[in-house]
Amino acid sequence: MTNPEEGKKAPAKDPWDLPDVSGLVVGVLGGTGDQGRGLAYRLGRAGQKVVIGSRSGERAAAAAAELGEGVEGADNAECARRSDIVIVAVPWEGHGKTLEALRDELAGKLVVDCVNPLGFDKQGAYAIRPDEGSAAQQAAALLPDSRVTAAFHHLSAVLLQDPRVERIDTDVMVLGDSRADTDLVQALANRIPGMRGVFAGRLRGAHQVESLVANLISVNRRYKAHAGLRLTDV
User: Fold this and answer.
1) What is the pTM of this model?
2) What domains can you pick out in the chain, each with its CATH number?
3) Which H/E stretch holds residue 118?
């Protein structure tokens, strides 16, 4: 007899059915800089356990003490070892050297690169294209044993760090080559009130997302704003 179930496709997964990430430890490399500090503050405020990393463990510990309960500090290597998900928020100039030095500690980890390769001149900000294609692709090349994604590029460090701001209404574009990994990053973005993680393609498309920050800087300068992004009809 023919099995009537044979040949049927499994139902498509609901793209908004995301995993629970509340129990995961999130590390933030570059957690003493404006962007990393702001992300650590928001995630800690949302109840996530966070470890911020810095080249100096003492500096990281001092910054963590200012950010409140749930946030701890360590040197970069210890931060990477203790974390399940590691956000890379270091300056572009030190991106490659930082990741290369942490290859062993980041092996097996889910890495979220939010670095924007930018230059500045008299005309304002402009995008830099790394040899690998993007900062995220450079991370993937330097960390062959890690699972690299890209997200959190378009967030205002000013809003992230302002305790008077209850919600940050913006979408977070998430890129990566594994759905399981991008689902985790989307879920992490959703932990912050007002934010929504949205899948935006494979890692090879990270350059366009990183480059858009130069345009947002121009918007913010003209309108004295802290602009983010909202995707319509999603």
Assistant:
1) 0.94
2) 25-223 (3.40.50.720)
3) strand 118-121
